[in-house]
Amino acid sequence: MNAVDAPDNAQGRSVRPVEEVFRRVFGAHPEGVWAAPGRVNLIGEHTDYNDGFALPIAIPQHTLVAAKRRRDGRLRLHSEQGEGPVIDLAVADLVPGAVTTWGAYPAGVVWALREAGYETGGADLHIDSTVPTGAGLSSSAALECAVAFAYDDLYGLGLTPAALALIAQRAENGFVGVPCGVMDQMASACCAEGQALHLDIRAGAHEHVPFAPGAEGLRLLVVDTRVKHDLGDGAYAALRAGCERAARLLGLAALRDLAPEDLPRAGRLLPASLVPLVRHVVTENARVTEAVSHLRAGRVAALGPIISAGHASLRDDYAISCAETDLVVDTALEHGALGARMTGGGFGGSVIVLVAEERASAVGTAVTGAFRTAGYQEPHLFEVSPAPGARRIA
Ligand code: ADP
Ligand code: MG
User: Nearest bound ligand to CA 38?
Assistant: First the structure.
């Protein structure tokens, strides 16, 4: 058995099964099928809500939505992964708090579009995803973006991918009630095959930067630790509030405005508890800038130490790593990986590992063995390469 699964070839995935389930559930043929990917973030964690920078790629795992408009104002939702029967809602009655199950993600998108003034009506939606949920690979943004892209086409809204990402974030913030930044939704909506996405959140700007580890004899592995600590959601909000408080105390619009050379002075002005948070955000923004300049010069391997430094910062300063993610990172580095870090919000989830092709299998075996020795659940390891962003596929 291979320690690392081969790349998911989901890009070539047939749409027929989702069309067939749609027909069985809703009794008609869908008008189309849309796809939106999950993501891993190469570097730039917890920087989006600080107006900073990030560098995600889309992964081949993605969410499909088969959709058909309805004229009666009903929104009917069915998911292969969602609990329970078909959810049936009146679009006109959508208000935050009205939906408390998984249906809040797609319903939130319809709510956010209407809040933004787009006169959209009902639809039947069937969802099927290969993005594992709660693994830090952003199944939530994949679901939101797939629905947003479907609605944009079906109702002829003509919104840009970036505008749809903002709608998707508004759905998660305002309707689901998760105070996330916009990185996940931008990655799902705007990424391109073979490219990383350099995000400047304050400027609302994004640009593609070539990222082809395979061409350099490298592999990017994802290790899903299958750990999700429940303290995650409240802790995320507390971290975000801490950053916003630090910016206020420093008289800045956001921590984006603090340069690395100003850290010592900021450290003297702030309560001690906020100093590590600020240090993570400021050094992490600098790491994104450095990583982008390496990628532009074709030096993919140079990302290794930057990725590992990002993990140390999340572990020591932001304090959102956990024993399982640390074990993956330490084991991978001990066995010759160029760099490794947790990716996503923290408290579990997935780790990315940049490794030379000839070391990939040994690293995978070592990580799996270390988990067995520690008595942890078996992790899921797979290789990824930068996949396309959200789009219509049928
Ligand atoms: P992540 O985005 O890292 O996967 P989140 O906690 O942000 O984790 O989002 C996971 C939630 O999104 C799930 O618990 C579920 O409510 C919803 N979700 C994601 N994908 C699907 C899907 N295919 N079907 C139903 N619900 C989904
Ligand atoms: Mg999410």
Answer: 1
- Chain mean position to CA 146: 14
Largest Cα–Cα separation, the chain: 66
Count the residues in the chain.
394
Contact 361, 154 (CB under 8 A): no
Q: How far is the CA of 140 from the centre of ligand 1 (A)?
A: 4
pTM of the model: 0.96
Pair (205, 231) in one structural domain: no
Q: Whose CA is nearest to atom 20 of ligand 1?
A: 139
pLDDT digits (tens, 9 = 90+) for 89-131: 999 999 999 999 999 999 999 999 999 999 999 999 999 999 9
Q: Is 319 helix (H, G, I), strand (E, B) or coil?
A: coil
Alpha carbon of 237 to ligand 2 centroid (Å): 14
Instruction: Please give the residue range of the domain that contains residue 362.
Output: 211-384
Distance CA 169, CA 313 (A): 26
- Say yes or no: CB of residue 15 within 6 Å of ligand 1: no
* Per-residue pLDDT tens over the stretch 368-386: 999 999 999 999 999 999 9
Answer yes or no: 326 catalytic. Answer: no
Residue 320 alpha carbon to ligand 2 centre in Å: 16
Q: Which residues pair with 196 in a beta bridge?
A: 209
Instruction: Name, in order, each residue with C-beta under 8 angstroms of 389's C-beta and a sequence gap of 6 or more.
Output: 36, 37, 58, 161, 187, 188, 189, 190, 191, 192
DSSP letter for each residue of 20-74 = HHHHHHHSS--SEEEEEEEEEESS--S-GGGT-EE-EEEEEEEEEEEEEEESSSE
Residue 102 lies in a domain: yes
The preferred substitution site among 40, 99, 102, 169 for testing ligand 1, maximizing ligand atoms within 8 Å of CB, is 102
Same structural domain for residues 253 and 195? no
> Helix H segments across 218-274?
232-249, 263-269
Does the residue 227 lie in any domain?
yes
Shared domain for 281 and 182, answered yes or no, is no
pLDDT digits over 155-181, tens only?
Answer: 999 999 999 999 999 999 999 999 999
